[in-house]
Amino acid sequence: MKLSNLKIYEKDDIGNIECSIDNKIAWLKFNKNYLNYVQDTYDGFLVLILLIAMKKNKNIEIEGILSYKLYHNITFYLMPLIKVIHPSFHIIKIICKEFSYGIGYNNSGVGCGLSCGVDSLACLEDYYFNDCKTFNLTHVTNFNAGSCRQKLIYENRLMNINNYVNETNLNLLYVDTNFIEINNLDHQYFHMFRNLSVPLFFQKLFRKYYYGSCFSYFHSKIYKGSESLTSAETTVIPLLSTENLEYILHGAQYTRIEKTLKISENKLSFKYLDVCISSFDYIDSDTVINCSKCYKCLRTLVTLDFYNIIDKYNKVFDLDLYYEYKDEYLNNLSIHNPYDREIKEIYKDILKNNNIKQNEQQEQQEQQEQQEQQEQQEQNEQNEQNEQNEQNENIWYAYKDDWSKINNNQIISNKNVFIKKNKDIHSDKLDNNSKKMVENKTIFNLITNQNDNKYYIIKL
Predict the structure, then answer these.
(1) What is the model's pTM?
(2) How far apart are CA 205 and CA 244, in angstroms?
(3) Of 179, 161, 184, nearest to 171 (Cα)?
(4) How many domains does the structure of the chain reveal?
(5) Residue-level pLDDT at 353
(6) Are residues 254 and 319 in the same domain?
(7) 89 and 35, same structural domain?
């Protein structure tokens, strides 16, 4: 893959950076006031295409200047690390026309990305609302580099970010790009390379740049074939630094719950917190900015709920909708997800009680079902008995010596004679309900089962 024809220019009051990548043009557009902060190196474009080149096993040829520190880190450390995590990727060659070994840009800016999510707001709590001297933030950034597929949704998100920044003294650098067309790898897993390629274009501005961590140090890991570069961000991100710009991972010192509690101390989060992954809710900018039922919304809300601060966020979440999905979410937490494990830990007593309650309810339901089955069985037996009794009421016995068989199914009386209900009692001792006098030549049908030697069994 060839990087060439770098252009930095102003057009229609917009700052532009362009580069040819084989037969495609990668571009960035931004406020023209930042043009003076753009340097003429290919650092950002290299980071943008690195993973694509490694996946396709294509060397990278750069017809221009590249940071030697970045080249060295990528060649000796980063590519071997990526190869461990993604074994199907390839170690490639980076061929550069000229190296830069650091220039005195007098850059004093300190930046971080701002999405108004938990990670970025936690960074602001530490480095804007807290005095950290030379580490204090001067700028926040937002890049249209792949997190939103629809421009309208991105613009509505950016509106929320602008409203937040307007309540601070921070400067906002917004950059539009077509980077998703160049590096179309899944944003969820490869976002850091697209996002961190952009500050590398503004090294005359930034000397430090914070990137919000996905995981805590405790949950960070590197193991072969995991395909999770975000799990290795503590190692990956510093390796994208240059002689002029230092990348710093922020937030890995905290758990997700600790970050959430940290930002809840600032009232700005009550109005602008945006954690939603279901960005379609942003099509209508008049609705609450979080869908309140996706896993990121629920993860945040159950934390706020546990610590009794959820009501402060009723302007950015639909709390009624949250309560509809809360139990389902808590009951399906995964032991394999570090965020879920954190929530399971704080909710362990509640979940334990819920499980006990569910078990009790299950036992009660099973007992009720067993009782209903028993009652039904008893009813069936009673019905059978009643039916048998009803049948028995119509069963009579005829003394064989007084009758003749017409055929296998019928008999005829030889004289006037008694039939009776109980064959074991003499007719003289039976009442009129238990015996009947039938006239000579009376014909009766026999029942199928004839199991008596002395009596015919008939049914009236």
Answers:
(1) 0.77
(2) 10
(3) 161
(4) 3
(5) 66
(6) no
(7) yes
